[in-house]
Amino acid sequence: MPHKPHPERLDDESPELTAEWFAKAKPASEVLPKMIGTKSAEELLRPRRGRPPLPATKEHVNIRLDADVVQAFKSKGPGWQTRLNAALREWLRSQPM
User: Fold this and answer.
1) What are 34-60's pLDDT values in tens digits?
2) Choosing a second label site near 67 at 20 to 30 A (CA), which of 8, 25, 76, 96?
3) Is the pTM of this model over 0.85?
């Protein structure tokens, strides 16, 4: 028995894609330059790997802290290093430079 679509989920503006539609489809690299220009299409289609680069990268340091201080930050759950960094930043703001 063929699958009967749910009547409330029918969308006339976005019909279900068929094998015929896919046969006519063209790759984005062929269509985009005509739509948005060559330079914009190249930028959009350029592969990006990993996280986007941060404007200011963090510095890796080894630091020894009292166990109770570390445990207090860890006890609040994930993100304890970010919270510790924020606490240090807040302390720096309170200091006259």
Assistant:
1) 999 999 999 999 988 888 888 888 899
2) 96
3) no
